[in-house]
DNA sequence: TTGTACGCGTTATCAC
DNA sequence: GTGATAACGCGTACAA
């Protein structure tokens, strides 16, 4: 008899499928079939279920994956530098919705992985060892991370349009262009004619799309009415100040995020412009802050819960080998006091 | 020959240790030894390293774990309800420090898992499949989750003292009692004699300890000077209002967190009390908000980076089978304008 | 120092 | 419908 081998660290002591099979008086195959909902005789099924409860069996995910089972875990790739990984409340909220939605499908784990910096690459290497499908947030227009992933045939689902990768990675996006268009059209319907815009970052799809929607609806386009922002409160303040200077006659400002809109509101107040009498202000996202400002913000709501559900279903499809595809969620204009 | 079996889903196409061995002209054992830093001949080592780079080999974590290797992943258990999982910026910041610290040890953090509610239990079940060691935040005084974990002999390291489990779970904590004591002693050294306190939640170790430190230093104890808070801004406002009503003659307020202290500051302003002239205000945590208030907050700093490093080393020790143990980090009084 | 072979726990296939 | 067993990729004890 040759050498006993393979004794790594002590076994965790957890019940295995063999223990269950023994307790139920059936073979491991039958237990596995019960576990996975495959056809099994009635008597066997009951015996197995009793044994399952009795032994407190918990499946070993590593063994499942090694044997080729569908992943029950998902990696979460946020394309920002590591120090801003969990810093965005909006992203965290969506992440939470995704956790819930995935949980309902018996899928878990969301490995927070940062984006493209040098240390981030190391973390991604670690993540790669798990071979999980990827849920990606804040995909930039070009990213080595994304190229790497699609090159390794990792199933990826993006939150937002993965510009340049639409055929390789599935995605869910909201109709940013349409939302911005609706907002600006609404402002015009209320008689506003000189409508300024504080854009989002131009290297993010949302930034590009919301500006496009603005241009769709604004009528005559005046460069003096466009200032670029960065989705931050401070950025909103600065941008509004510039806008007020460049185009003192403006009667409305559309900010591409509620957080920036809050900054716009304060800048207007400091500049002595009344909102909404002198200047109407529109936001985007229907973030919590939208009802925390005075006046409350007219904004564009994205249905985040359903959004997360769609991300989950897209991910499941992708795991099961379907081709990449995109879905677009509708948006809703929410009118409050700022217009 | 009996049936070919075990063909799950298509192989991911990743290079395996066998591919590397073939490319290097050595056996898999040798490759494994190189990978794990075990003694290997010089020629073999170089050949393997070349093959490693050439094949783009990435270890399969699931196979590693199944074979008994040390876990390269850690589960993150936050003992709050699911909807508050990523909602606390302080926790997120520490989480990030832990991510960094663990990453330096080639360990990746994984799986934000919520605490004790009914749906949370389901998520923990999922997490259990991975059999990861656990990094625990906000451990309440009594928790089925913790009992479950220690019962299953899962290595657990807590952030803060795991009251009632000190012998079963390792932990890192800062000296909350001493920090509070220093703060109150400092206030007294500046001539303050009627010092109120806004405590943290009394079912959290930090809340209990910081109040104890207050009692250590305050001298005569007056119940009218104690109001319980919940670590939130709004809670700080409410508590300060009550304090000002109950003890109009107070000349200082120690809030058990900076966020609450910010609320105290605003409540004082509304009540017409000048800070620090009429009322000195002390906080705790040295959170970002501590330098965002007017005046800036005198507070107690916890060395979070080193704290995270200690959490990591405690975790490693625990994984390697050492007994549970606790370490206490020192704190530092930071004096700013609010006193 | 290096090669060989077993075992980790699960899934899926084959034969009954 | 059920049992037996190969295969997943890796770590390691043992033999050479």
TrEMBL record, chains A, B:
Domain (HTH lacI-type) ranges: 15-68
| Highest taxon of source | Bacteria
Q: Which Gene3D superfamilies match?
A: 3.40.50.2300, lambda repressor-like DNA-binding domains
Q: Which Pfam families match?
A: LacI, Peripla_BP_3
GO MF annotation: an example: DNA binding
For this UniProt record, give its keywords in alphabetical order, as a comma-separated list. Answer: DNA-binding, Transcription, Transcription regulation
Supply the name of the protein: LacI family DNA-binding transcriptional regulator
Can you name the source organism? Actinoplanes sichuanensis
